[in-house]
Here is the input.
Amino acid sequence: MMDLMHDKAGSRVVRRATAAGRRLDRLWPRLAEWRGTPHALDLATAAGCFALMSLDIPGLATADNALTGATATVVLALGAATLLLRRRVPWGPWLPYVVSLVFLGWLHELTLVQFALYSVARYRGRGAGVLSCCGYFVVACVSYALPQWPVHRGETVSQFLALVVPIGVLATGVGIAANRQDLVRALERQRTRTALLQAVQEERGSVAGDVHDFVGRELTMLSVRAEVLSRRARGERWEQDFDDLAETARRAHLLLNEIVVRRGSGGAAPTPGLEGLPRLAEESARTGNKVTVHVDEAARAQSPLRQAAVHRVVQECLTNAAKHAPGQPVEVTVTLSADRLHVTVTNPLPPSAPETLPVSAGTGTAGMEERVRAMGGEFRAGVLAGAHYEVRADLPARRTP
Here is the structure.
């Protein structure tokens, strides 16, 4: 009986531990995502500020400021908590700054003011940082002139200045430097977004050019054949039907010319299809990347637009391989299933990074994705297990008889 009770108790402990582990597994990804957010950084900053100020709690409890140990802890915690608002509201950085000046004049506390000056300089810019630093110096000098100024904060003027001035200058200077770094990063992000948008627009222009070249040719052939059939049916009752068909084809071609934006003044040459893949492989081989091309023969019956999309994807993949994986073999596979045209380009990752970083705008992948998605396809690119990089594009396929 005792053994049975022990077994049941052990089973309950195991079940509870398992349930706790499952809850932790669900909670940990959320914590990992939240850990790198600005709110998490503000919380860590506020906690660090309070930890530093808590070292002064014993002295504040014995000083003549009407505070006990418990009330001093609460006051300092509330002051540190104002740092949580420095990025949440427009006036956020000014709240801890004002509170820090109150702490400076009342408690002669110099810790919060360092975080406050940094926050104002970083999140409100150089002008606000310099202004807040000057205000801090004024309040510090007034507090020093009063008889309640503690001796350990500077008994003589030189001692006072040696303590107060570096605090204000360093905190403000570091905040201004961080503000400049934020501006540089924001500018880089804006440039990246602009480059991506430009690449997308260029790819759309390329797709539009291919649509004009391929579809326009078919419309021209349709118009010509309809006119030939109309002449053959001269005097028959369906003669007018062929004339209407030819006129409709001509109007569609004119409308296509008006809608599609031509590349350049006279229009660029259309993108090659699957027949251009061997030439791409030869060019890559000359740069050091051996390329193996596998093309399903049934895929060659696909429309020129689909073949042009395949050529564009393979071309950009081989260019990226030459930049980021020089000397590595590349495998290109084009297969056709029931309703999808699959394009896969795979290459091993280089054992080490290139000695010189390649010149790259980082927009090639965006262009490939735009080309594929414009045709209703799916696009994926990333590192696979086994240290291989794979680009995969799935396009809607035209059914072949």
